[in-house]
Amino acid sequence: MNIVIDTHTHTLASGHAYSTILENALSAKKKGLKLFCTTDHAPEMPGAPHYWFFNNQRILPRFLHDVGILRGVEANTLNINGDIDLPSTSDQHLDWVIASFHEPVFPPSNKDEHTQALINVIKSGRIDVLGHLGNPNYPFDIEKVLQCAKQYNVAVEVNNTSLTGKSRKGSDVRCSQIVEIGKKIGVYFTTGSDAHFCEEIARLDLAVNLLQLHKVEESKIITTSTQRFLKFLLLRGKPVIEQFKHLY
Known about the structure:
This protein is of the alpha/beta class. Helices cover 29% and strands 14% of the residues. InterPro entries: Phosphatase_YcdX_put, PHP_dom, PHP_phosphatase, Pol/His_phosphatase_N, Pol/histidinol_Pase-like.
């Protein structure tokens, strides 16, 4: 399986990452990526930038070191209503919005509340993908949430860092369950390194192994070609990115 896009990466703007976007782009080029999403943490995460940072991504070139740049954010799911921590006026400036649970922002509660929050953030129409769902601190009704994700064309991330055992310990078992159930339901999957240092860009081996273990069809893994990924954005109602026309 050939992965050409990394859909979850951080720069030093996140407050606890250590590379610039130029360093990330150079690493992406060296590792053969065609595109990557820059997805720094949204404002409610301690150390994260102001929302102007995300609105101002329009000044970023569409290509850095010959790698296409998707302007994004890792937003925080704030509550059971499915609110995220950016104003709706930011949406027009973003190509790719991840919604994730983070303990400092949404203290772990119970399965029903986590399920309700995930379903509502999907139904909000503001997010494109659910990030690192395997976190064992946030149990949820996997089938119910993934059925909703399929209905609303929201992708499910397979997060490589979650599978390393260094972060969100215990995620590996739950990630496997999510992929197994997601394959049966027919959700779209994406692969994210969750890189917080440039050398981690495109480190997706564990995510790929898990998807292959469950025999997920490449047509359902949107990072296996630029066409699949960009057509998924169209499916989400995003406009054509003129500078990427040759990649559709």
